[in-house]
Inverse folding.
């Protein structure tokens, strides 16, 4: 088999875990493998936080402290993960070289007092640039030939939209040219999340970027499957921290995963599996620390089983905007003006609902965008078409997801009966035209109770012993 394996930050958090991951990869050395790695846990976030601080403070001592911290954690990881002294010295030399370049960049930012999007991408790329040599060295130290490449060296070339770069045409061909000769000889370790533009300048792929890198590579090299190794046992019926008896979902479709991800589940970002969907590539979500567990297989289509609903999930940190007014009734283009104003203000809409009377529109946005959204709508409707605008920042969205819901009557009734029986007030209701989800908005204080009530209603929990 030809496999792409992606390891997240929690899987390679320190030297012990990197060593474990190397042994895990060794189980599959008879296959053709490409490994995609994230940064060590929390490193990228720390880099960006410190870069912002250095920009504002202009403090060279802070730069030296950050460099010392990064050198320390990566040196320790390498010393634990790599047993072979020659390989270890090679890796430490590479780390020194890259850390030196990072220090120069941070020093320049410190003097300039400016962190541009391009500079931010350059700084954030160092999480993966420092982890990849360690993981590749750990593989070599147990006898697996390996080399490491940046995303750009692997063939991922993007536009120059720093922070959210998009692959350019021809990326598949470049990836094939770069990686297919290598996988016959060794295990390439590719940095996830980062790529480069046509001028060779580092770019990053945005949220879910490391998974996206793996999916791009899997599509390009015609992998048999893409395996996402995480710290969870596949995709679950609910967040186990909210629902203790949540269980693994062994088989799920692409559309269901995308719905779950959109509505708060953090296992796979929808964008991450777009390239896999294009070629119907099976995706597995596996647990790095329980590798014998089968995890979750994600496929294009599946036979409908007895489970009408697959999972219940919640989006937090959102806010509700209600706009109303008698002048909205029969006035053409009100919704278009609302959505246009929000788009111009850079506000993403999570959910919408409009009353049949046309006198009310409810919109869910990210909590951080609430005031921006309200100001944009007020500015657009100075003419009085909208009589009232109210905001509620203390809400959460609950989604019931399942491809089996399509065409099955009574699902919505069960959802709202379960909520009513639990004493939970539903503020807003929305159902996608795909019928793969029913979502509603409740007060944040009621969100966890709502998830538990719905999880129980649809019998999604582990059987009681």
């Amino acid at each position: 088999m030809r496999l792409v394996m992606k390891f997240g930050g929690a899987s390679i958090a320190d030297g012990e875990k990197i060593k474990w991951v190397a042994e895990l990869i060794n189980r599959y050395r008879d296959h053709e493998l490409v490994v995609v790695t994230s940064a060590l846990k929390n490193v990228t976030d720390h880099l960006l936080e410190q870069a912002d601080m250095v920009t504002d403070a202009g403090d060279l001592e802070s730069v030296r402290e950050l460099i010392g911290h990064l050198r320390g954690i990566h040196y320790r990881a390498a010393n634990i993960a790599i047993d072979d002294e020659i390989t270890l010295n090679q890796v430490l030399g590479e780390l020194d070289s890259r850390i030196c370049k990072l220090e120069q960049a941070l020093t320049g930012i410190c003097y300039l007092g400016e962190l541009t999007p391009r500079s931010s991408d350059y700084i954030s790329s160092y999480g993966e640039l420092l982890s990849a040599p360690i993981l590749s060295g750990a593989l070599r130290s147990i006898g697996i030939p390996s080399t490491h490449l940046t995303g750009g060296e692997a063939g991922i070339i993007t536009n120059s939209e720093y922070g959210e770069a998009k692959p350019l045409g021809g990326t598949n061909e470049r990836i094939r040219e770069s990686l297919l000769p290598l996988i016959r000889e060794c295990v390439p370790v590719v940095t996830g999340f980062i790529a480069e533009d046509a001028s060779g300048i580092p770019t990053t792929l945005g949220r879910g970027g490391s998974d996206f890198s793996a999916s791009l590579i899997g599509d390009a090299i015609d992998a048999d499957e893409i395996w996402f190794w995480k710290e969870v046992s596949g995709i679950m019926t609910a967040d186990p921290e909210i629902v203790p008896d949540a269980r693994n979902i062994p088989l799920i479709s692409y559309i269901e995963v995308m719905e779950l991800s959109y509505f708060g589940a953090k296992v796979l970002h929808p964008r991450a599996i777009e390239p896999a969907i294009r070629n119907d590539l099976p995706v597995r979500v596996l647990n790095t620390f329980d590798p014998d567990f089968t995890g979750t297989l994600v496929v294009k289509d599946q036979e409908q089983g007895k489970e009408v609903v697959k999972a219940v999930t919640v989006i937090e940190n959102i806010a509700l905007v209600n706009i109303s007014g008698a002048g909205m009734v029969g006035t053409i283009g009100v919704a278009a003006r609302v959505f246009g104003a929000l788009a111009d203000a850079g506000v993403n809409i999570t959910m919408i609902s409009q009353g049949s009377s046309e006198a009310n529109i409810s919109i869910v946005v990210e909590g951080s965008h609430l005031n921006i959204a309200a100001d944009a709508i007020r500015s657009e409707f100075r003419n009085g078409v909208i009589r009232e605008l109210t905001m509620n920042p203390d809400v959460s969205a609950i989604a019931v997801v399942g491809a089996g819901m399509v065409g099955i009557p009574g699902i919505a009734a069960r959802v709202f009966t379960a909520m009513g029986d639990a004493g939970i007030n539903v503020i807003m209701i929305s159902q996608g035209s795909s019928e793969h989800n029913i979502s509603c908005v409740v007060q944040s204080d009621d969100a966890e109770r709502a998830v538990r009530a719905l999880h129980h209603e649809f019998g999604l929990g582990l059987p009681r012993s």
Summary: The chain has two domains: 2-231, 311-457. The first strand starts at residue 2 and ends at 7.
